[in-house]
Design a protein that fits this description.
Layout (H helix, E strand, L loop, with lengths): L8 H11 L9 E7 L6 H20 L8 E7 L4 H12 L4 E5 L4 H13 L3 E4 L5 H4 L8 E3 L4 H14 L5 E6 L2 H16 L7 E4 L7 H8 L5 E5 L2 H12 L9 E3 L8 H5 L8 E5 L9 H14 L12 H21 L4 H8 L5 E2 L4 E2 L17 E5 L5 E3 L2
Parallel strand pairs: 1-2, 1-3, 3-4, 4-5, 6-7, 6-8, 8-9, 9-10
Antiparallel strand pairs: 10-13, 11-12, 13-14
Helix pairs in contact: 2-11, 2-12, 3-4, 6-7, 12-13
């Protein structure tokens, strides 16, 4: 298959004219995508892919990078760490691959860290939030993230619960590195207020019956549940809460993992019976910078036939984060004036500023800071009656 089939004729003409070469002589710069594209968090993977594609098309329409087009290649890890590791090794073996975008799952990213650093492959995180993904002990560190960091998220969720007047706080956490990362952050935040969780209910990936976990939590009479789950397990928790007598239904403040799959479609019949709010960083409906958002919204509606309105942009944080981090990567490649991974990694630590969708990054990263976002970027949202994720304020 001709790789230039994925690049618009306009973009290719622009690049050819600026480079003075024939199209056949121009080697694309490859960015990999290693994400769940077909299992429980496939919607998150697709949102990331679309954000990256929009950014790449925009960059290519403006002449590419170093006179070369960018090209996204996607590999599906299906939420399986072993598949993710195979994908990383495959991408790393190819010199034309400058960086890889990750997906939704913290456990997959954690399993890949050794190979990422052994192969000196730049890993860009637009979703997975586990603190140790970035705070990984490797030097030099090849992981850069535009996403939530659980060290900040746990404290934020506890803080939001306290603002609502909740003092008796239970935790429902998936039994993975992501869940443990949040447990640590949430317990520290509670301890700072002289509090302990009323209960910590753990569950495994794929758990479908949450009745035991919900009963264990309910026995402690909490005011609220802080939930860390992806779509399948989050759906089971919400259904279990909805099945309780109305007076016993405990409010839920959820991490954003449930938005990476088809949660609303599967839960819409019971969402009216549950007080559910969800951690987010971005909304195309209420963007921080409307002019910047409108450009991406228009591109999204033009490129994807399943979207006819801004409300059709599902998992908006995945799209916005991926768009921003691809734009930042392009700036680093230009600054490095090469696609050598070590040089681009160093350039990522030494950019000055980028005005993005999510925020003004000044700078995005530094040698000491590989997380571009912090708690000031967080907001609580919920699903409206149409399944659109809308900010609560």
């Amino acid at each position: 298959m001709n790789i230039f089939n994925h690049i618009s004729k306009y973009a290719l003409l622009t690049i050819v004219m600026s480079s003075g070469l024939n199209a056949s002589e121009i080697e694309p710069i490859i960015i990999g995508l290693d994400a769940d594209m077909s299992a429980g968090a496939a919607r998150g993977g697709l949102a990331i892919q679309r954000g990256a594609e929009i950014a790449i098309n925009e960059i290519n329409d403006n002449g590419g990078v170093l006179g070369r087009p960018l090209l996204l290649e996607s590999k599906d890890h299906r939420g399986n760490p072993a598949r993710g590791l195979d994908n990383i090794k495959s991408f790393a073996s190819r010199n034309e691959v400058v960086a890889v975008l990750g997906g939704v799952h913290t456990p997959v990213a954690m399993h890949e860290l050794e190979a990422i650093h052994d192969q000196q492959l730049i890993y860009l995180g637009p979703w997975a939030a586990g603190t140790p993904i970035v705070n990984n002990g490797y030097s030099p560190n090849y992981v850069f993230r535009v996403s939530i960091r659980d060290e900040f998220a746990g404290a934020y969720l506890v803080g939001e619960a306290l603002k609502k007047g909740y003092r008796k706080i239970a935790l429902a956490l998936e039994k993975t590195g992501w869940g443990r990362s949040n447990e640590k952050a949430m317990k520290m935040a509670l301890a700072a207020e002289g509090l302990d969780p009323t209960e910590i209910a753990w569950f495994h990936w794929g758990a479908q019956d949450m009745e035991t976990a919900v009963k264990s939590i309910a026995k402690t009479s909490p005011d609220v549940i802080l939930l860390v789950a992806n779509t399948p397990e989050g759906l089971a928790i919400v259904r279990s809460i909805a099945s309780l007598p109305k007076a016993d239904r405990i409010p839920i403040i959820s991490h954003w993992g449930i938005t990476g799959g088809s949660f609303f479609e599967q839960a819409k019949d019971v969402l009216g019976d549950v007080d559910l709010s969800i951690l987010q960083t971005y909304s195309f409906i209420k963007p921080s910078f409307p002019d910047r958002a409108n450009k991406v919204i228009n591109a999204y509606l033009e490129q994807y036939s399943d979207a006819t309105d801004v409300q059709d942009i599902f998992a908006p944080t995945g799209t916005a984060h991926a768009y921003d981090i691809i734009q930042i990567l392009a700036l680093a490649i230009k600054k490095a004036n090469t696609t050598n991974r070590q040089s681009v990694r160093n350039a990522l630590e030494n950019l000055t500023a980028y005005n993005g969708l999510v925020r003004d990054y000044s700078p995005p990263f530094s040698a000491e800071k590989h997380d571009a976002l912090d708690a000031s970027d967080f907001r609580l949202s919920t699903y409206d009656e149409k399944g659109v994720i809308v900010p609560l304020k």
